Structure to design on (718 residues):
């Protein structure tokens, strides 16, 4: 018995998971500080070490408690929450974090634009001050969960007359506000997991600004660091991800094995397991540039494994399970066919920072190599070629 | 399965600092004696047998530092391989005698899997690492492990790919020897050696990366540091990523050797990855140094030779994948 299991026992005693409504239980768990124990007291945490969370989760799971379906609310948990915690006002933290964590309010991320992918800081969505509000107009893309979201974290341009990084401001945007138009974006898998979001004169109250005017890039960096950790650093058991799926396909298909595929598979199993172990090392510290290595390695391994599985399946590798334009709430690698996994994994080296951008980040921030000469650094944003 | 401890403890970091300080201050003939004096050559030996009573996690930290300096000391052949075999043999007067000196395991450095010894302590064993430093040899012979005085063995050093860990050929003609243990002691030694070697490989790779990064930051061509070119930066970023994976795998092997949990998987996992990463790091080091990297004067070649020799040592990456496959239920 530890302090953590004692606290879980007290929570479960006061709110029996078998008879308590799911949302009510999750709210009680948040209020008991057991949502994310490393968060401050009063905001779902106990200012405890991150490692204690595992013990809490295990004890709650053993008690039959419902979880907050983290896959459905990954953007809120992984990106919005750490940013709100780091840069939000006391009111914003109190208002947003509880329903975010319980899943009662889904979050999405309005960052990327058709003209600003890797060069995110060049984004063009305009936010103009109007009294106590900001009026936002622009187009965002690659927005997962936008069609289910109550809130968005939004990066907008508040000053076009200064260099691109200096003219950005970070907002929380109400996805039910007038002028927000969400449209599905179909991908190479056939699904429309993402959206395009058109913003036309959307009014955002100044009280929903996160951080200072013009300080949006610094705030966004908190989000992006956490995104990379969220993508590459989840705790998983051995063979917990793509490697487990491909290993099972291998075990189920003894007649299709070749020496070439065998050596490649074992080598990839090794890399996947080493990545899992590196994740264990990373989780014992706080998110830093090492998260970039996790994501970079994850993308390469997932792509190589999913490609190998299609080859292994031979004549079955020629088929595809379903080209229907579905609207999944989260990516389901395991429930789909090998062809889907292969195609979807192509996004791993593009979404959340392309592998090329990650290599540049590692080279400059981890290794301390000199930056590329940059033509756009000191020019006002409005004078940049587009 | 509980999670392994893959961090470096404070004690381990202190150990690293003292080894590094010694390696920076000393070079050449007195180094091995200084390392013995510091106690880092007897870390896994119980205090009752005259050692430090530490574990393989600590041995691995020393191996990292020795790899980072490609120090020409018989650490692998003696303090790792021979010591592991002796500790497996149990507490006897002969084992105590051997532990008090510089014993060396008499197997080809490339050994992995089945070891065929000499018969009747007559015959030869090729490419034995650190043999020149030995006062006694642990010799696989007639299905057992024998203790043989170095004076009773003909030791012929040969030109070695890695001159910082030279190999020699041994010849026995009806040498007198004492049986210490069965061949399982040799298998244990190879397992420990392969696991610790992974940390040495991480040390080699880290030196190569650090040295290359420092060089491309100050080397100017076309009016720019060459380290500002994306083609160079991205290669080094990839190498750093490989090192993140290799370090996790090597730490895991050291932890598994200490806890005894999942050891065979952890060791072959680490060897199949770290050997390759060290070679790649050393090859990148030579390439990204350009012409100076090809000179005898620059130290890069010593790391390349150590990395390449280590790739063969105690099983190639391919052999370790072959070992691993049935252990993880991925049969060919």
């Amino acid at each position: 018995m530890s302090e953590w299991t004692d606290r879980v026992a007290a929570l479960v005693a006061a709110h029996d998971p078998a008879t308590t409504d799911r949302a009510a239980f999750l709210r009680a768990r948040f209020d008991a500080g057991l949502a994310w124990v490393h968060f401050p007291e009063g905001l779902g945490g106990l200012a405890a070490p991150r490692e204690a969370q595992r013990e809490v989760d295990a004890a709650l799971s053993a008690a039959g408690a419902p979880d907050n379906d983290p896959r459905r609310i990954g953007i809120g948990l992984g990106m919005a929450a750490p940013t709100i915690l780091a840069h939000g006002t006391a009111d914003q933290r109190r208002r947003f974090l509880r329903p975010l964590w319980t899943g009662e309010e889904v979050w999405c991320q309005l960052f990327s634009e058709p003209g600003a992918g890797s060069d995110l800081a060049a984004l063009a969505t305009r936010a103009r001050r109007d009294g106590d509000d900001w009026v936002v107009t622009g187009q965002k893309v690659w927005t997962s969960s936008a069609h289910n979201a109550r809130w968005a974290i939004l990066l907008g341009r508040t000053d076009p007359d200064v260099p691109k990084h200096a003219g950005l401001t970070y907002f929380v945007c109400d996805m039910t506000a007038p002028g927000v138009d969400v449209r599905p974006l179909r991908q190479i898998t056939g699904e429309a997991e993402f959206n395009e979001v058109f913003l036309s004169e959307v009014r955002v109250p100044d009280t929903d600004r996160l951080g200072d005017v013009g300080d949006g890039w610094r705030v966004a960096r908190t989000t992006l660091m956490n995104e990379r950790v969220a993508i590459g650093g989840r705790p998983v058991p051995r063979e917990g991800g793509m490697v487990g799926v491909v290993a099972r396909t291998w075990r189920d298909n003894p007649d299709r094995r070749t020496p070439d595929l065998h050596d490649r598979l074992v080598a990839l199993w090794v890399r996947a397991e080493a990545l899992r172990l590196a994740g264990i090392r990373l989780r014992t510290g706080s998110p830093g540039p090492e998260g970039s290595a996790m994501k970079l390695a994850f993308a390469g391994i997932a792509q190589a494994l999913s490609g190998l599985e299609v080859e292994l399946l031979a004549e079955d590798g020629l088929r595809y399970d379903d080209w229907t334009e579905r609207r999944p709430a989260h990516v389901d690698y395991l429930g789909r066919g090998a062809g889907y996994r292969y195609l979807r994994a192509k996004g791993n080296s593009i979404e959340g920072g392309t592998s090329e951008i990650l290599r540049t980040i590692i080279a400059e921030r981890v290794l301390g190599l000199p930056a590329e000469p940059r033509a756009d650094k000191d020019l006002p944003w409005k004078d940049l070629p587009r | 399965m509980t999670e392994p401890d893959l961090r470096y403890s404070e004690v381990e970091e202190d150990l690293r600092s003292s080894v590094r300080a010694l390696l920076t201050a000393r070079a050449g003939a007195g180094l091995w004696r200084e390392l013995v004096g510091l106690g880092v050559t007897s870390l896994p030996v119980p205090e009752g047998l005259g050692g430090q009573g530490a574990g393989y996690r600590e041995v691995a930290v020393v191996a990292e530092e020795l790899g980072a300096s490609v120090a020409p000391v018989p650490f692998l052949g003696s303090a790792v391989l021979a010591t592991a075999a002796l500790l497996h043999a149990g507490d006897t007067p002969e084992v105590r005698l051997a532990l008090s000196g510089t014993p060396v395991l008499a197997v080809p450095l490339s050994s992995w899997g089945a070891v065929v010894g000499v018969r009747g302590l007559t015959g030869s064993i090729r490419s034995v690492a650190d043999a020149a430093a030995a006062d006694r040899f642990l010799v696989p012979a007639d299905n057992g492990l024998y203790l043989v005085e170095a004076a009773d063995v003909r030791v012929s050093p040969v030109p070695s790919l890695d001159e910082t860990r030279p190999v020699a050929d041994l010849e026995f003609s009806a040498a007198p020897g004492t049986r210490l243990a069965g061949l399982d002691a040799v298998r244990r030694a190879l397992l420990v050696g392969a696991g610790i070697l992974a940390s040495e490989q991480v040390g080699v790779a880290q030196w190569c990366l650090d040295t290359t990064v420092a060089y491309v930051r100050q080397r100017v061509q076309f009016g720019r540091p060459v380290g500002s070119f994306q083609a160079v930066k991205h290669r080094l970023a990839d190498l750093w990523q490989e090192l993140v994976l290799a370090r996790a795998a090597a730490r895991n092997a050291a932890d598994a050797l200490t806890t005894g949990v999942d050891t065979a998987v952890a060791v072959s996992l680490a060897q199949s990855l770290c050997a390759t990463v060290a070679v790649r790091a050393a090859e990148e080091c030579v390439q990204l140094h350009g012409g100076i990297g090809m000179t005898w004067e620059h130290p890069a070649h010593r790391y390349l030779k150590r990395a390449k020799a280590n790739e063969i040592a105690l099983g190639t990456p391919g052999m370790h994948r072959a070992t691993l496959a049935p252990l993880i239920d991925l049969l060919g």
